Amino acid sequence: MRVLLIQPNYDVHVIHPPLGLGYLASFLKTKGIDVSILDATLRNSSFDDINENIIDFNPDLVGITVLSRGHNKAKNLIKNIKQSFPKLLIVIGGTQVTAYPKEVLSDLKADFAVVGEGEITLYELVKALENKSALSKIDGLAYFQNKKFKINQARKLIENLDELPFPAWDLMPPEDYRIAPILEPIKAFPVAPIFTSRGCPYNCSFCASNATWKRRVRFRSLKNILDEIKLLKREYGIKEFHISDDNFTADTQRAEKFCDALISEQINLPWQCPSGVRIDSLPLSLLRKMKRAGCYAVGLGIESGDVEMLKRMDKKLDLKIVPEVLKNLHKVGIDSYGFFILGLPGETLSSSRKTVDFALDNDFDRAWFNIFVPYPGSTAFEGWLGKRGFNQIDWEKHDGSTAVMTGEGLSIKQIEKFQKEALRKFYLRPKQFLKLVSRIGPREIGSLFLSRFFRKSLRLKV
Known about the structure:
This protein has helices spanning 19-30, 40-43, 47-57, 71-84, 95-99, 101-108, 119-131, 210-213, 222-236, 252-264, 284-292, 307-312, 322-332, 349-361, 379-385, 412-427, 430-439, 442-450, 452-458; strands at residues 2-7, 34-39, 61-65, 89-93, 112-114, 141-145, 148-151, 191-194, 197-198, 218-219, 240-243, 271-277, 295-303, 335-342, 366-371. It contains 19 helices and 15 strands.
């Protein structure tokens, strides 16, 4: 059987290798299945381009990863494929699919949905289709049968991540990805993102991660991680890597051992944690080792400068520690960028101002102010959905710069205006503007200001 995995042409501000599809592809390849990846986001592929790729590869099954903000794009892509190739089977996956399999599957009109961790489920689906065997025995699979929705027993999480092969880097070469950062410095190209773990033990109300990972953290062994980095350096010429974990420093002792291994193995590559780490898991001893091991920047998930808002979102963060950690980051020479959310459930004008003031009053090298997005799978989404029908959601607005709900005495327009003001206040300070320009190269500056996402966030008209 031949399987084509597609990332639709999503409008995202950072384009990087689709690690999820890479893991699915490599797992299928080790089982002797012919598989290919089409990253339509990278290629800016039209429907005609995708159809040509389907004709050339001639797959028996197409797998499509679904992002919440790209829900409609995935839906239109599936409609196009079904019209052009009526007999071609389509399976979908992603956090949104895992959280609401029936709703997403019925709206997107795919044939199957993978619920939860996907490698084994997808493989078993391929074998069942190949052998024409029963779908009911495949854990983690959802589908419609005789117009009735069926969802099989939940798939157990993979206990030993070292059993998974490395992502299929040959199908998504890092050299093809010129990552254009928004407020992220890049030292050298090519860059490869890697996962050293899966999952997060926390349960922040705005995050949908636990829909898939169930608040469990599973770690790859240090040897397994280093073997992949060495492979990427040797075979694909990477000059930098990014750790994409939900919570890289969940175990600080393990993080220190990872840094020790990078140093002893003389990996000698710059790296950063752009997905963010918890600021309360960064002792000075770890920061020193991270710097020695090549780390030069970390994202910090602060979210709000208002204590009551942090309690509402179950963030469990003491803001009093922030100045000291930022001081230590500057002491060792690691850049920081703070992640903040505006328009959270229960947000007021006062709490919004506290968040912006907190970002301005503390010594972050960069900051990003997203507008709250209720992601399917998060506890906040359940409250936001309320009596609203799932299929009535305008997914185009789930972009981080469009407000979809009001606060307490705070209108949608006020929230969107506040985001723009926050970005301008932070970056139009002479020190911050010069720092941003000096640390991002000309090509990245161009890409940054051509980004629809960035322009929308900074435009003056509300």
